């Protein structure tokens, strides 16, 4: 394949290895607020909303969430390769951001205004449709968005820096999804369907504003040309692109780490609201305090970990974050009903360190892999790499609610009761497994897999024949 990877000339486009302007990092990163609010709002609330507000049996609710995510098996690779080959004066990626912003925001509103249709199966069918719409909108925006940093810069440490900016907005979006939403629901009445509809509409507006801000803020960002049109069929091109990506051993290692890690994160997310009110006997206001602590810790830790990675390497910084996450998960096994606020806040500070490192280091390493592949092959495949990476995120996001839904059904959870009425016994055990034991096991597996990752800064500093395949 012939490469056409040179950047499109622009008067103020930053050079490939130059330090990126603060405004560009801030503008691109701002889109992560909407993405984080969208993703965390869905993953953290959808099972509780479906099972306890819409009164869909937990196992059925988990199955619906899982099946809707299977759409990404088709859409992720299609959007990834499409954005790699798309040509536009606005760049390969930005047109996707425009339409994805509209669809993603609309889908959030539709999900949390889902009506109860008299039968749980009809309600589940409606929920499946709007969750599928959400999956498509999220894909159209997020895959091109996450591919953009690989085009913006080829500087090894600047890749970490731009993702540190993103991490700040991820944290703020998570704060709204994990704390702000809970406070509003507590105030409006967390067991009332109307309260959830109001929250859905407010969040949809915030998501749209954030995603469109990133679209306009990246208008003058450096971007690269794709290969353009080809005589090959779309299916042939897609198979070739992903065949090349799947042969990259560094990438395979990284997504295996992320799969294991995110399995723990997503089982925790699906069960966490239940765990707080059922097992700990705490309300959403206390959960909001936890969320604020996590956000503050994440914002403080992200730049510190970026600086630390310059001295000990990205892999070791990732180890630090992953190990912290295992300790955090295990700590919930020591919690009990009426857990003191100081203990909850301490855990929030701990997970903030883990969260910032897990996200920033993983995304920086992904960008390294993309640029190493481009140097070796002369072909830009940002979309293809990001599509597979994103699919792993979405697959775990589907498996988490599925596992927790079946665990709650097996434990005898009664979804006809208000969800803040403690049910104890097997329900508490199922929730503890979901937020502590499983995440700890998955975290250890992720650390073992990370030990085999080999791509380092030396591979970009003159040893380019080493480890780039």
Automatic annotation (TrEMBL):
UniProt keyword list: Membrane, Transmembrane, Transmembrane helix
One GO molecular-function entry: symporter activity
UniProt GO cellular component terms: plasma membrane
Record-annotated membrane-spanning stretches: 32-53, 96-118, 124-143, 164-184, 196-217, 259-277, 289-308, 317-335, 341-366, 387-410, 430-450
GO biological process, one term: carbohydrate transport
Family: Belongs to the sodium:galactoside symporter (TC 2.A.2) family.
PANTHER family noted in UniProt: MAJOR FACILITATOR SUPERFAMILY (MFS) PROFILE DOMAIN-CONTAINING PROTEIN, MAJOR FACILITATOR SUPERFAMILY DOMAIN-CONTAINING PROTEIN
UniProt-recorded name of the protein: MFS transporter
């Amino acid at each position: 394949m012939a490469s056409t990877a040179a950047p499109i000339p622009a008067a103020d486009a930053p050079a490939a290895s130059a330090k990126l302007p603060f405004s560009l990092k801030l503008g691109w990163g701002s889109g992560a607020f909407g993405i984080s609010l969208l993703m965390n709002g869905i993953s953290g609330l959808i099972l509780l909303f479906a099972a306890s507000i819409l009164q869909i049996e937990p196992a059925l609710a988990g199955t619906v969430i899982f099946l809707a995510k299977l759409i990404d098996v088709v859409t992720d690779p299609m959007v990834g390769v499409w954005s790699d080959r798309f040509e536009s004066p606005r760049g390969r990626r930005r047109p996707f951001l425009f339409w994805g912003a509209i669809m993603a925001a609309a889908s959030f509103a539709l999900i949390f205004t889902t009506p109860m249709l008299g039968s749980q199966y009809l309600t589940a069918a409606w929920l499946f449709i709007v969750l599928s719409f959400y999956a498509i909108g999220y894909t159209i925006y997020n895959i091109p968005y996450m591919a953009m940093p690989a085009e913006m810069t080829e500087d090894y440490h600047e890749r970490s820096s731009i993702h540190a900016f993103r991490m700040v907005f991820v944290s703020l979006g998570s704060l709204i999804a994990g704390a702000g939403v809970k406070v509003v629901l507590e105030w409006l009445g967390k067991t009332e369907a109307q309260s959830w509809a109001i929250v859905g509409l407010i969040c949809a507006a915030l998501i749209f504003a954030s995603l469109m801000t990133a679209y306009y803020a990246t208008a003058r960002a450096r971007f690269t040309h794709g290969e353009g049109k080809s005589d090959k069929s779309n299916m042939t091109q897609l198979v070739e692109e992903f065949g090349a990506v799947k042969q990259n051993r560094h990438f395979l290692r990284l997504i295996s780490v992320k799969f294991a890690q995110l399995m723990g994160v997503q089982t925790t997310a699906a069960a966490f609201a239940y765990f707080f009110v059922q097992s700990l006997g705490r309300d959403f206001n206390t959960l909001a305090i936890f969320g604020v602590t996590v956000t503050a810790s994440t914002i403080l830790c992200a730049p510190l970990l970026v600086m630390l990675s310059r001295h000990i390497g990205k892999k070791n910084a990732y180890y630090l974050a992953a190990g912290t996450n295992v300790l955090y998960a295990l700590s919930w096994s020591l919690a009990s009903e009426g857990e003191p606020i100081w203990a909850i806040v301490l855990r929030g500070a701990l997970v903030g360190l883990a969260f910032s490192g897990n996200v920033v280091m993983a995304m920086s390493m992904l960008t390294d892999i993309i640029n190493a592949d481009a140097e070796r092959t002369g072909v830009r495949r940002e979309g293809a790499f990001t599509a597979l990476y994103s699919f792993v995120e979405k697959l775990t996001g589907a498996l988490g609610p599925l596992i927790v839904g079946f665990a709650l059904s097996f434990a005898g959870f009664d979804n006809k009761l208000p969800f803040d009425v403690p049910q104890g016994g097997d329900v508490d055990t199922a929730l503890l497994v979901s937020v502590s034991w499983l995440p700890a096991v998955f975290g250890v597996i992720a650390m073992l897999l990370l030990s085999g990752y080999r791509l380092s800064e030396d591979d970009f500093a003159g040893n380019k024949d080493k480890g780039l395949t």
